[in-house]
Task: inverse folding
C-alpha cells in the first residue's frame, strides 16, 4: 500500500491485493459491530453508472460515475468524479466530464502524493482533491481500460480489457501521466482487472495467470518466466476474473463469460460448474481447483474474498445463486467446506470487517437488490436492508467513516447505516 494515500480505503477493493477489507487509517471505526435490536437502514441517491467510492482524509468520500447511453450508438462515453457529503450523498465538488471512450466501469484511487487518479475508457486522468483536472493522457489501445494498480514505487499500471487480442500493459509516471517505459504485450487476452503486491503485477489471462516484476535497474516491467499456471487446460471452462493476493497464494474464480444485462441469475454460458482456484505465489505448480456450487452453468464476474486472519475463503456462483465458504489449511493445502447459503444472489465485490468478523454481500431476490451483513465464521445473518435498485450490483462497495458503508450498484449509490 506504499503507493496509495494512508487512508482506510484509497482505492477499489481497499488495496491492490484485493483483500476487500479496510486498511488502518485515521478516523475509521473498527467495523459495524451490529448488536441485537439494531437494524440496517439506507439512504439512496439516483446516479448515472456508479462504479465505486474511495475515502481520503477523515470525512472525505469520492464517487466515480460514467455515462452509458452514447455507447449504444458507438460514441465515446465520459466519466465524472464527485466529492460527496458522507451522509446525504449529495455532491460537494464535481469534476467536468472526463474524456473516456469505449464503455466499461473504470477505476479511481488516491495516490500517496494526495491526488486522485482515474482510468476510464482509454484515458487516464489526474485530479486534485477539489475534483479539478490536472492532467490527462490518451492510452494507446482503442478499447476500454478496466482500472489500474499503483505499485509501491508509485508507478501506475493499467491494462486494456481484451477478449480476442493480447492485452497490453502501460506504466505511467504519476507526476506527468506519461509512460515510464515501453508498453508490454501480454501473451494472451485478459478480461480481469490487474492486482499487485509490492512492485509485482498479476494478470489473469483468458487461460493462464502470470505476473510481472518491476526491474528498477532497467526501469521496466519484466515477465516472471518461472511463474505461470494454465487454469483452463483441456476443460470447457471460460476465463477468470480478478485475483486476490493474500501474501502466500493467488485466489480467483473462472467461468467468467456470461450474459449479464441487469442480473447474473441464469446468465452463465458454459455448461460446467464455476471453480475457485488457488495458486501458490512461490510455486505455480502448487495449485488447487474446487467447484463452488457444483451446478452446471455456474458463472461469476468478480473475485472471491479471503480473510487472512482466519484463513476463511468465500466464493460464489452468481448464475445459480450460491454463496460458499471454506476454511483453508495452509499446511495441508486443503479447503474444508465451512458454510453454504442458497439461494443467495451474490455477485458484487464484497466488504470484510475482519475485527468484527462481518462480511457485507449483496443478495438479489424478488427482482431487487438487498445488502446483507453475515458472520463470516458461521454464515449467520446479522442484518439486511433492501435497496431501491432493480439491477443486481456487480461493482465496488466501500466502508464509511462511522458505522456505515457505501454500496454502488449501477443506477444508484446507497449509504447503509445502523439504526
Result:
Amino acid at each position: 500500500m506504499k503507493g496509495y494515500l494512508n487512508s482506510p480505503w484509497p482505492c477499489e477493493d481497499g488495496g491492490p491485493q484485493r483483500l476487500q477489507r479496510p486498511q488502518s487509517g485515521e478516523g475509521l471505526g473498527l467495523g459495524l459491530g451490529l448488536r441485537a435490536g439494531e437494524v440496517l437502514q439506507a439512504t439512496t441517491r439516483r446516479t448515472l453508472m456508479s462504479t465505486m467510492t474511495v475515502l481520503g482524509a477523515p470525512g472525505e468520500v469520492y464517487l466515480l460515475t460514467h455515462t452509458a447511453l452514447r455507447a449504444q450508438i458507438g460514441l465515446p462515453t465520459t466519466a465524472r468524479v464527485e466529492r460527496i457529503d458522507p451522509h446525504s450523498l449529495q455532491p460537494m465538488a464535481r469534476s467536468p466530464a472526463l474524456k473516456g471512450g469505449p464503455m466499461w466501469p473504470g477505476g479511481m484511487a488516491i495516490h500517496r502524493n494526495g491526488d486522485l487518479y482515474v482510468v476510464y475508457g482509454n484515458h487516464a486522468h489526474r485530479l486534485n482533491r477539489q475534483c479539478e483536472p490536472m492532467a490527462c493522457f490518451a492510452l494507446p489501445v482503442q478499447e476500454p481500460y478496466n482500472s489500474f494498480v499503483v505499485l509501491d514505487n508509485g508507478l501506475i499500471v493499467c491494462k486494456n480489457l481484451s477478449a480476442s487480442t493480447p492485452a497490453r500493459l502501460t506504466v505511467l509516471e504519476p507526476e506527468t501521466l506519461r509512460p515510464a517505459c515501453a508498453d508490454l504485450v501480454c501473451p494472451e487476452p485478459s478480461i480481469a482487472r490487474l492486482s499487485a503486491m509490492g512492485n509485482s503485477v498479476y494478470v489473469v489471462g483468458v487461460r493462464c495467470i502470470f505476473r510481472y516484476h518491476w526491474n528498477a535497474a532497467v526501469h521496466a516491467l519484466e515477465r516472471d518466466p518461472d511463474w505461470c499456471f494454465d487454469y483452463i487446460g483441456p476443460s470447457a471452462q471460460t476465463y477468470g476474473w480478478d485475483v486476490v493476493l493474500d501474501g502466500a497464494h493467488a485466489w480467483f474464480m473462472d467461468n467468467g463469460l456470461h450474459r449479464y444485462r441487469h442480473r447474473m441469475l441464469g446468465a452463465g454460458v458454459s455448461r460446467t460448474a464455476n471453480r475457485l482456484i488457488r495458486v501458490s505465489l512461490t510455486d505455480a505448480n502448487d495449485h488447487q481447483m474446487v467447484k463452488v456450487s457444483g451446478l452446471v452453468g455456474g458463472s461469476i464476474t468478480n473475485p472471491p474474498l479471503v480473510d487472512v486472519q482466519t484463513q476463511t475463503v468465500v466464493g460464489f456462483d452468481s448464475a445459480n445463486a450460491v454463496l460458499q465458504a471454506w476454511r483453508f489449511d495452509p499446511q495441508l493445502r486443503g479447503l474444508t467446506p465451512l458454510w453454504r447459503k442458497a439461494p443467495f444472489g451474490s455477485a458484487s465485490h464484497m466488504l470484510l470487517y475482519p475485527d468484527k468478523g462481518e462480511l457485507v454481500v449483496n443478495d438479489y431476490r424478488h427482482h431487487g437488490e438487498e445488502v446483507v451483513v453475515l458472520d463470516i465464521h458461521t454464515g449467520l445473518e446479522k442484518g439486511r436492508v433492501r435497496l431501491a435498485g432493480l439491477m443486481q450490483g456487480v461493482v465496488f462497495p466501500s466502508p464509511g467513516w462511522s458505522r456505515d458503508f457505501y454500496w454502488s450498484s449501477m443506477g444508484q449509490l446507497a449509504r447503509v447505516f445502523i439504526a
